Amino acid sequence: xxxxxxxxxxxxxxxxxxxxxxxxxxxxxxxxxxxxxxxxxxxxxxxxxxxxxxxxxxxxxxxxxxxxxxx
Length: 71
Known about the structure:
This protein is α+β, with helices and mostly antiparallel strands and 71 residues long. The protein contains two helices and two strands, in the order αββα. It has a two-stranded antiparallel sheet with strand order 1-2.
């Protein structure tokens, strides 16, 4: 039952992020230090969420591997 709650929460979070992203479609300039590009804000938000999820997965996997290794 606890896993179902996490899945439901994840689905709600994805829906909220998708709605928020679709509402922000204007182009914004991004300064990389050596170049400036203009991308839609929706793309920047989705990339940031994806990178955050990827980092969270990576750190979780490393933590689980280290805890199993020490047992």
